Amino acid sequence: MRSVVFDVGETLVDETRIFARWADRLGVPRLAFFGLMGGVMARGRPLMDAFRLVKPGFRLEEEVAAWRAEDPGTLADGFDEHDLYPDVRPALAELRAMGLGVVVAGNQPAQARAALEAMDLPVDAVHVSEEWGLEKPDPAFFERVVREVGAAPGEIAYVGDRLDNDVLPARAAGMATVLLRRGMQGYLHADDPDAKRADLVADSLTDIPAWIAGRR
């Protein structure tokens, strides 16, 4: 194992505050909105269906643009240092101390890269889907990960909270995979029979260094 690549949402970043702000903007109680998101995901429907159920005709790009125009200088749908999960820095630092490459690559808008880089995380590079013009689970996304990391697929571990977007396509690309049990989808997917296809199902990012050490 030479490198570990991390997803962003609900892997590194706790999205609670983001979705709470969306609930407020859409004018729906936060608990109701969180429950609605969980309900659509449990049915295998896209997360955006929760937004469209609250606001028929919802279009993410238009809503985000309007929000930023109305509230310039605020986080709006973004995130910052306060949204990092507490295990992120210790785990990434330990992996770096082991001599491993540490990379972030996830489905995120372009501005997310600047937000992540501003946190000064112990990583070698940050990549986001919008800048690549590729989104998970497209196999081309994982091919791009391999090229950017500069290692053979079997020397890379991909870490994420989802089977469909993270574990299964990364595994198909030849990578080792870690399914993280957190976030609405992480807990749901860890209970799926396909979770057995992950090389590791982890409760915390701090589980990963010991797992890699064991593989060595």
TrEMBL record:
NCBIfam families: HAD-SF-IA-v1, HAD-SF-IA-v3, HAD-SF-IIIA. Gene3D superfamilies: HAD superfamily/HAD-like. Signal peptide: none annotated. It holds the Pfam family Hydrolase. Transmembrane segments: none annotated. Keywords: Hydrolase. InterPro entries: HAD-like_hydrolase_sf, HAD-like_sf, HAD-SF_hydro_IA, HAD-SF_hydro_IIIA, HAD_sf. This is HAD family hydrolase. GO terms for molecular function: hydrolase activity. The keyword Cell membrane does not apply. SUPFAM superfamilies: HAD-like. It comes from the Bacteria.
